[in-house]
Amino acid sequence: MTALTLSTSSAATLRADAVVIGVAKGPKGLVLAPGSETVDKAFDGKLAAVLEILGASGAEGEATKLPAPSGLKSPVVLAVGLGGVPDNGDRYDGEALRRAAGVAARTLSGTKKAAFALPVEDAADAGAVAEGALLGAYVYVPRGAAGAPADKTADKAGKGAKAARNGADSKDSGKEPLGEVALLGGKPRDKAYKAATDRAVAVAAELNRARDLINMPPNELNPKSFATEVQAAAKEHGLKVEVLDEKALLKGGFGGIMGVGQGADAPPRLVKLSYTHPKARQSLAFVGKGITYDSGGISLKPAGHNETMKCDMSGAAAVFAAVVSAAKLGLQVNVTGWLALAENMPSGGATRPGDVLRMYSGKTVEVLNTDAEGRLVLADAITRASEDKPDAIVDVATLTGAMVLALGNRTFGIMANDDAFRTAIHEISEEVGEQSWPMPMPPELLKAMDSQVADLSNMGERMGGGLVAGLFLQEFVGEGITWAHLDIAGPAFHEGAPFGYTPKGGTGSAVRTLVRLAERTASGDLG
Ligand code: BES
Ligand code: MN
Ligand code: ZN
Questions:
Q1: Sheet holding 334-344, edge to edge
Q2: Please, which pLDDT band fits residue 186 given cuts at 50, 70 and 90?
Q3: pLDDT at site 67
Q4: Does the predicted model carry a pTM greater than 0.85?
Q5: Binding site membership of 297 for ligand 1 (Cβ less than 6 Å)
Q6: Is the confidence at residue 99, as pLDDT, over 50?
Q7: Strands 18-26 and 29-32: what pairing?
Q8: Ligand 1 atom showing the smallest separation from residue 399 Cα
Q9: What is the pLDDT of residue 148?
Q10: What is the mean pLDDT of residues 267-279?
Q11: pLDDT band with cut points at 50, 70 and 90 for residue 162
Q12: What is the dihedral of CA 493, 498, 504, 510, to 10 degrees?
């Protein structure tokens, strides 16, 4: 990943390939943001005027490159738009800083080093710039060696990952990420400043790894190779990991996970990844949907609906990243990640529409649509997570197309069995720069899931399909346990042009919300 260094040098004296400054949209035109003073001086105070002539306005997303005058040690100046000038003096909000830093890092991919002289007033601002830059710099480097036989590579993905990543094929994948971000301004020797940037480095590394897993083609990442990845990370960070393979799942009665995975050649897994702190007072369980490919199964998805379904393990990737982040940050809370991994494929051995599964909870489910598979694997994982009696369970899943229709491509839906918890998660997500919206769980929608041959069916009314899925999951939450469900089907995978610090492809949606939730729980902020 891109390296981050803290520097006390001025933007004029630091030697880099480019100096990044912020510009904003003022009432009378473009204004330079704090941090750009020495750069402006090298332009004889005319930088704002020069940028306006070049067509810059300070709008969010804008990036303007210009050659530096002789007074600067870097040959290029990059001005990135911060959007409107803030009303209350000179403070830009965290998300404006993250996005501008992300645009800068993206624009500078292929270069070695950039000095970031964006407006940084305190430790939180420094953390935001660092996070935006490291996330914006992300580039997916394909792991699979050219010509490697499909599927066979998946089993080796865990072990061969590092070698392949450093391999020759990285050149073919486009530009290299920006090599180094030197953060200027602020107080590098200040403890809070250092902590905020260290946190950004830790979280960005894990979030970018989640993006890698999401972007991996489904013939390279299957339930088994995903589990191997988790085992390797657990070893590296001293975390406890247990992997239930298909034999253990069958023996344990995990009918939901087995039922979904039984049509695929690559068998399913349930992975438990635990981080514990000796002084923890609370425990969280994060449950992730990990369908490494969702073909729909016998209820096969038509062309046009299956091209991006490698992203159907984004919830599990987010949970993985969040648990490792909590460990890296040494948070005073216990966090257990449950990754429900399966591949949803049609075959002679696949679950049929009409089959009845006996779930891990003992409930029976009539599978009326094999494409509603996420709720089946999650139900088993939620029941299992409940047995450990955590203080709260949060599941994360690319669960329904209905949620994408309701909230669009950038906002995830939140459902919960506790209004205060749902509100808290919504507020946390907004604070970290992830868009979300609270959704209701109308009890009358349960009725349509009645079955004549089982306790319930996996299909309900089409209307409110996202809420129906939430209601189904709630049936499997242990008595008295606080639970929330994040449906990230919209924001998990970005098909449009990159923006801010969001690349094309896997986004790492929900990672930062889960990490902040763990931090708040550790500090006792959530009660
Ligand atoms: N993985 C899909 C949901 C999805 C859709 C994720 C679009 C990302 C983008 C899920 O398994 C699914 O197929 N859901 C069905 C449920 C239906 C059959 C009740 C859906 O949303 O159509
Ligand atoms: Mn599906
Ligand atoms: Zn799915």
A1: 240-244, 269-275, 334-344, 283-294, 392-397, 482-487, 411-416, 435-438
A2: confident
A3: 98
A4: yes
A5: no
A6: yes
A7: antiparallel
A8: 3
A9: 52
A10: 98
A11: very low
A12: -40
Reference 453, options 313, 356, 388; nearest CA is: 356
Enumerate the CATH 3.40.220.10 domain ranges in the chain, comma separated.
1-220
Please give the Cα distance from 215 to 400 (Å, whole number). 20
Q: Binning pLDDT at 50, 70 and 90, where does residue 6 land?
A: very high
Measured in angstroms, how far is the CA atom of residue 307 from the centroid of ligand 2? Answer: 13
Percent of the chain at pLDDT > 90 equals 91
Beta bridge partners of 397: 487
106: annotated active-site residue: no
Q: Is 6 in the pocket of ligand 1 (CB under 6 A)?
A: no
Spot the catalytic one: 375, 384, 422, 512. Answer: 375
Q: In this predicted model, what pLDDT tens digit does every residue of 121-153 receive, in sequence order?
A: 999 999 999 999 999 999 999 986 545 555 655
State how far Cα 62 lies from the chain centre: 24
Interval between CA 362 and ligand 3 midpoint (Å): 23
CA distances 394 to 174, 268, 275, Å, are 37, 21, 16
DSSP string, 64-121: EEEEPPTTSSSSEEEEEEEEEPPSSTTPPPHHHHHHHHHHHHHHTTT-SEEEEE----
Query: pLDDT, tens digit, for every residue of 395-416?
Result: 999 999 999 999 999 999 999 9
Which ligand places an atom closest to the C-alpha of 401?
A: 1
Arithmetic mean of pLDDT over the chain: 94
Catalytic residue list contains 301 = yes
55 CA → ligand 3 middle, Å: 45
For the domain spanning 1-220, the CATH number is: 3.40.220.10
Torsion of the alpha carbons at 220, 225, 226 and 231, rounded to the nearest 10: -150
CATH code 3.40.630.10 region(s) in the chain: 229-398+449-494
Nearest bound ligand to the CA of residue 472: 1
Q: Which residue's CA lies nearest to atom 8 of ligand 1?
A: 489
Q: Is the pLDDT of residue 158 over 80?
A: no
Atom of ligand 1 nearest to the CA of 301: 13
Taking the domain 229-398+449-494, which CATH number applies?
A: 3.40.630.10
> Does the Cβ of 402 fall within 6 Å of ligand 1?
yes
489 within ligand 1 shell (Cβ under 6 A): yes
In ligand 1, the atom with minimum distance to the C-alpha of 344 is 11
Q: Of 73, 91, 301, 504, which is the active-site residue?
A: 301
Structure tokens at 362: 């003992």
3-class secondary-structure state, position 157: helix
Ligand 1 close to Cβ of residue 401 (< 6 A): yes
Is the pLDDT at 161 greater than 50? The verdict is no
At 175, is the pLDDT very low, low, confident or very high (cuts 50, 70, 90)?
Answer: confident
